[in-house]
Write a structure and sequence with these properties.
Length: 436
């Protein structure tokens, strides 16, 4: 099957890179002293840098590879902070009063990225056309009523239920048992958003050191940090760790609190207009309540299907997952059978043990980590808020800045258990689909 689904021009690299490919920047001189050193040049790191520049606080951004090489230019580009936070909140069975501050912050996260793109005229295919969450089973649909109520009351989501007999108004498929629409949601071209963001940071005069991995962090008696790199050591007043799914051994206390998970995505060849119109009548983005999650949307130009999911629980070559994603896609959209794949890729997302994003300070290090697969808006927002905290310019502690950042004695940063989790998820999904 694999040979049959690949287009002659097939590439094992992100479709997004056709518009913007992460590249190494001209080497900058490393300062001997800097108020803030930011580790990681993804959405969180660049938003932190941009905010520090606005506040007049000097900083440098350090990245181990080409800036943007990680998840920031590899995601599905779906922006729905409140919907995904709402799902985690309900999973944790929080009361409305407990959930309210998290959802309020999720509203702020969406507002932040929307304003950032609009105010700076970032040309990144922003489409605020809503999000459809498909119910994997009848019981999943029945449980959505509580979520709609919570999202509308606390997250300004403009959400509503869609019964199965009306879901063709939202998605060109009969695969689900109805679903839920969140109208305050969007999708973007993630690499072009990144391109616009890094341009703003450079325009603000913030140095970005690419291909400059941090090899060690040592705190001095006065609280400052020695930041060791292959090109020299920087003395920093504060350090912000914004490495998310690529958090490594330099920060073991953070590595054991985030679980890197590979997310896999395919892009189809250009499709006939009548086919794309049938797939997404309202240009929504899509996901479902299946534990082995899938997420998908049309490309910004409306000509391709971008389809991603947890094809494997572990790490493997994306070409090995392409046939599985293709089957998932054609299960939902039989009309896509026969169309070829032009791109397949993967990138790491970071899950946390309590399924919520986190920012804060641990062992003297500021951090913004754990997007749980929904990082476009949330990591942008947490980067900004972490910068404000490091600069001492905020009196408000947001909900995601909590003293608890769970870890487990059974986890040291090596996600050995992912295949077991995958097997359990597949079994539970089968049971729900068949009996619930």
């Amino acid at each position: 099957m694999a040979a049959e689904i690949f287009h002659p021009s097939f590439k094992a690299r992100p479709y997004w890179w056709e518009a913007y490919t992460p590249t190494a920047l001209p080497q900058v001189d490393l300062p001997k002293d800097v108020p803030v050193a930011i580790v990681g040049a993804g959405y969180a790191g660049l938003n932190a840098a941009l905010e520090l520049a606005k506040l007049g606080v000097g900083c440098i951004v350090l990245d181990a590879a080409e800036p943007g090489f990680g998840a920031s230019t590899r995601s599905g580009g779906m922006v729905s902070a409140s919907a995904n936070v709402g799902k985690r909140i309900i999973n944790r069975a929080l009361t409305t009063e407990e959930a309210k501050p998290f959802l309020n912050d999720a509203v702020d996260a969406f507002t932040h990225i929307e304003s950032l793109i609009s105010d700076n005229k970032i040309d990144c295919g922003w489409h605020k056309t809503g999000y459809f969450l498909g119910a994997w089973s009848k019981s999943h649909f029945d449980g959505m009523a509580k979520k709609v109520e919570l999202l509308n009351a606390e997250a300004q989501s403009d959400a509503y239920l869609v019964p199965r007999e009306r879901q063709r108004e939202e998605i060109g498929s009969d695969y689900y048992h109805g679903g839920m629409v969140v109208q305050r949601a969007a999708h973007i071209h993630p690499a072009l958003y990144y391109k616009g963001l890094i341009g703003l940071v450079q325009k603000a005069g913030v140095p970005i050191a690419s291909q400059t991995p941090v090899m060690g962090l040592t705190q001095e008696s006065g609280g400052t940090w020695q930041v060791k790199t292959p090109r020299g050591t920087i003395r920093a007043g504060h350090v912000i760790v914004a490495t998310n799914g690529y958090t490594g051994d330099v920060t073991p206390q953070l590595k054991r609190r985030v679980v890197p998970v590979g997310s896999y995505i395919i892009a189809t060849e250009e499709l006939p207009p009548e086919v794309t119109a049938s797939l997404s009548p309202r240009n929504r983005s899509f996901a479902d309540t299946r534990r082995v999650l899938t997420y998908y949307r049309l490309s910004p130009d409306g000509k391709r299907m971008i389809f991603g999911g947890r094809a494997k629980f572990g790490f493997t070559e994306p070409t090995e997952t392409a046939p599985l994603l293709y089957r998932f896609m054609t299960d939902r959209y039989p009309q896509l059978k026969g169309f070829k794949i032009t791109h397949v890729w993967t990138g790491n997302v970071a899950f946390t043990l309590d399924e919520l994003p986190h920012m804060g300070k641990l062992d003297g290090l500021h951090f913004a980590l754990g997007c749980n697969g929904s990082g476009v808006a949330m990591m942008s927002y947490l980067g900004r808020e972490t910068a404000r905290k490091a600069a001492g310019k905020t009196n408000r502690q947001i909900a995601f800045d909590a003293p608890e950042f769970p870890s487990s004695p059974l986890y040291n940063g090596n996600p050995w258990f992912l295949p077991l989790v995958g097997a359990w998820f597949r079994t539970a999904d089968w049971w729900d689909r068949k009996f619930n």
